[in-house]
Amino acid sequence: MANSRFRAILLQRCPVCLDGRVFRSLLGTHKSCPSCGIRFERETGYFLTAMFFAYAIGFVLIAPTALYLYLREVSVNWFLAIISGALILLWPFIFRYSRILWLHADQLMDPRSEPPFGLPLDQPPPDR
What gap in Å lies between CA 89 and CA 100, rounded to an integer? Predict the structure, then answer.
């Protein structure tokens, strides 16, 4: 199970069935899994927590470069240009994997197995 979950994270797959694609385009997320039908966004603002993952991923990817540039005594202008350019180029990667990591972490903490019955998959569940 752990190996298939790791594979699903690397391949950016659904946290429930570990098969369906989460993204429909570079930055566009499916509303529900094309394979199992589970809704990805459980509530309004669901992906706000993914920002914490984005911050951590960005830090891990940029910190070694920043340290290298600092030790090489690169000028402040070049330092900012290189770091900014790297973040711009890495943003799609950071965005996608922050959402994937949040989806899988949330699935492990609060499992769900099936969509609400009787509702179209593109509609949110009714308020309780």
Answer: 19
Model pLDDT for residues 52-99, shown as the tens digit of each residue: 999 999 999 999 999 999 999 999 999 999 999 999 999 999 999 999
Q: Are 18 and 4 in contact (CB under 8 A)?
A: yes
Check if the beta carbon of residue 29 is closer than 8 Å to that of residue 12: no
The tokens describing 17, both together, are 């069935």
Q: Which of 11, 13, 30, 31 is nearest to 21 (CA)?
A: 13
Q: How far apart are alpha carbons 6 and 11 in whole angstroms?
A: 9
First to last CA, the chain: 33
